[in-house]
Amino acid sequence: MKRRTLLVAGSAVALVAAGGAGLAAARSADPDAAQAAAPPATAAVTRGDLVQTERVTGTLGFAGARTVGSTVDGTVTALPAENSVVQPGEALYAVDAEPVTLLAGDIPLWRELATGVADGPDVRQLEQALVGLGVGDGLRVNEHFSSATASAVAELQERLGIAETGRVGAEQFVVLPGAVRVGAHQAAVGDRVGPGAPLYAATSTERIVSADVPAARAADVELAGAAAAVTLPDGSRVDATISSVGAATADGEGGTVVPLTLTLADPAAAGDAVGAPVSVDLTARVVRDVLSVPVTALLALAEGGYAVQLPAGTGTRLVAVEVGAYAGGRVEVSGSGLAAGTEVVVPS
What we know:
Blueprint: E1 4-8, E2 11-15, H1 20-26, H2 31-36, E3 42-44, E4 46-62, E5 66-69, E6 74-78, E7 85-86, E8 91-95, E9 98-104, H3 121-132, H4 147-160, E10 173-176, E11 180-185, E12 192-193, E13 198-203, E14 207-214, H5 215-218, E15 227-231, E16 237-245, E17 249-250, E18 256-264, E19 277-294, E20 299-301, E21 306-312, E22 315-327, E23 330-334, E24 343-345
Parallel strand pairs: 9-10
Antiparallel strand pairs: 1-2, 2-20, 3-24, 4-14, 4-19, 5-13, 6-8, 6-12, 7-11, 8-9, 11-13, 14-18, 15-16, 15-19, 16-18, 17-18, 19-23, 20-21, 21-22, 22-23
């Protein structure tokens, strides 16, 4: 950064910003030139928090990576298109022309659910899923598989065009936490498969950013639950929150990193891009409730220290300041007569 020295109000001043030449002209010793010159540009002193950040590189993706596998033996007859989304109540795949339908829930379908089965939380989950799909009018949600539950299952089976057994088994249903975004196919229509055979990669529809922060710097930033900002490939910025922090791991280059997962406040802003690089600004330090000015308002005094210029009548006057934290193009300042709303001169 170039520094230029001139005399203002009897003090030697070095202009911090390259725009200082404009300020020098405004303070010309020629009275006629000074009168003709436009008033100097100003910016307000503000009071608030300054957030210092640490920038790392991240990658856009989706949460909940998994593999969807077959639950039955036979020939694959249908797969959803890559990059499509399968919602609860829709077919995840078909084997021997029989669709296998997605139900929403956190408990896997580890047993057949039918009349006479022992009560359990998986029954409650099934009944919640049925109500969510709009079947079983008046169905009481509890842990008991009742005749009303069987009727609701049969109603869903009729809607799906599959055998109306009133029973929920792996030949017809798969339970996953929610909607599934289809990734790369790992099998093709016509392939013979058995239970557990991989069909395609999948994720949830929850947008995330994955990032690694060097372990040596991890102690200097706020992690779990902290606010962050993500700069997307198109240059736009979106607020984010660190939702999880992984254990330190080797980075493959002789270093150690701490993996982070971030959720976006506006997931739609990221579009459908997967694997695209982004910049992630992590919160390193927050200085609260301080006065600040644009960094370009600072003047470096030749004798040491800094000052800002305040408009004074047809001219300006210098106010010496103590500087503190820098963040986002602003700097913390304190000095005699400075308060929120005070106007300071900045390069035009």
